[in-house]
Amino acid sequence: MSDTLLSVQGVETYYGNIRALAGVNVEVKKGEIVSLIGANGAGKSTLMMTVCGSPQARTGSVIFDGEDITRLPTHLIARRRIAQSPEGRRIFPRMTVYENLQMGASLDNLKYFNEDVEKIFTLFPRLKERQSQRGGTLSGGEQQMLSIGRALMARPKLLLLDEPSLGLAPLIVKGIFDAIKKLNQTEGLTVFLVEQNAFAALKLSDRAYVMVNGQVTMSGSGKELLANPEVRAAYLEGGRH
Ligand SMILES: Nc1ncnc2c1ncn2[C@@H]1O[C@H](COP(=O)(O)OP(=O)(O)OP(=O)(O)O)[C@@H](O)[C@H]1O
């Protein structure tokens, strides 16, 4: 059996006539943490959204766990257990923390509901303390925890994270990245994350890809890219670390 979980092959994605992805190849193996770094507008979020089926790739293919999901509608992609914490977190502001977690549970997993909520509360004790508080009143870091927690309620095979560190203080980012690492190490969860905070992402990741203008220009282990002079000059020097 192949150890590849996600394979993006020659993908081009358009918004009208604008080509946001220009032939992207990316692979994520089971149990890996892989990150995608790059400047604003490079196409990182578009790649993540293309994996989730909206927008769909115009050419190329997205293979998940051996199945071609390129043309599947988004709800069926979610049923394949790809869960996303999207850019901007998108929690439900008027619902409580607990209700937000309920929204993330899939019908297939209801029998695990209490167990899964407890697991998320153990991972993020702050969410337990605030379980009756409305999502919209949480701090940015707490909202990010909730967004990840809600995605985890789907018992994903692949967790997609779009800019989890955005707008958060370094100590909060560390807490969230430590939690992701712990999930990966204890549960073997596979994670694909998009980050502008290249330093934090590369430190966390087994492997990473660099994206420029809709194309992958470099790839390597987190360590290799951290030491790479081009990466350092473009994404690390004067950065947020
Ligand atoms: N809905 C849209 N309609 C038209 N163009 C879009 C749309 N969404 C994104 N784009 C364009 O596609 C390109 C890639 O955008 P994308 O959001 O994927 O980049 P990104 O690397 O995630 O950037 P950021 O880090 O700023 O979020 C950009 O040129 C952007 O302007």
Automatic annotation (TrEMBL):
Pfam families on file: ABC_tran (PF00005)
Listed InterPro entries: AAA+_ATPase (IPR003593), ABC_branched_ATPase_LivF/BraG (IPR030660), ABC_transporter-like_ATP-bd (IPR003439), ABC_transporter-like_CS (IPR017871), BCAA_Transport_ATP-bd_LivF (IPR052156), P-loop_NTPase (IPR027417)
Record carries keyword Nucleotide-binding: yes
GO molecular function: ATP binding
PANTHER family membership: HIGH-AFFINITY BRANCHED-CHAIN AMINO ACID TRANSPORT ATP-BINDING PROTEIN LIVF
Family: Belongs to the ABC transporter superfamily.
Protein name per UniProt: ABC transporter ATP-binding protein
Family matches, as SUPFAM superfamilies: P-loop containing nucleoside triphosphate hydrolases (SSF52540)
CDD domains assigned to the protein according to its UniProt record, in alphabetical order: ABC_TM1139_LivF_branched (cd03224)
Domain ABC transporter: 6-238
Chain coiled-coil ranges: none
Keywords: Amino-acid transport, ATP-binding, Nucleotide-binding, Transport
